[in-house]
Amino acid sequence: MNATPRWLDTDEKAAWDSFIHMQETLIGRLSRLLQADSGMSASDYIVLVNLTGTSDGKMRFLELARLVNWEKSRMSHQVTRMTKRGLVAREECPDDARGAFIVATPAGYKAIEDAAPLHVEHVRRLFIDALTPNQLSTFARLTKRVSDHMEKQPD
Which PROSITE patterns does its entry note (predicted)? Predict the structure, then answer.
């Protein structure tokens, strides 16, 4: 049984198209700048930011995958690449033989410490500075609302 599609009206389509254009352009540009500035991919960066943001620089593999909203296989490939470059290491989980911790290495800490100042400056220049404090607050509330709504929707 096929229901009639709920096509987007003009305002809805304009909002959706604007969001997609902004998101694709911003993420693409930030990714290229990060790569040019530090040699680090956006995927490397997000993994290291999350690991180094913990008190001990480590996180359970599945927790990290959930936090960055990646499939297990994508996280596994990313961790393998980063391990080969010495940015992270795998550590066995003492209370779960099948579980593993992903740990930021000293090289991983150095990489994020070198990359973060320029990256945050680009984020500020391309995104934060485009909005007033009130607009930024509204934007944060709206994006949280959409994220919360998505959490309640089936895949």
Answer: HTH_MARR_2
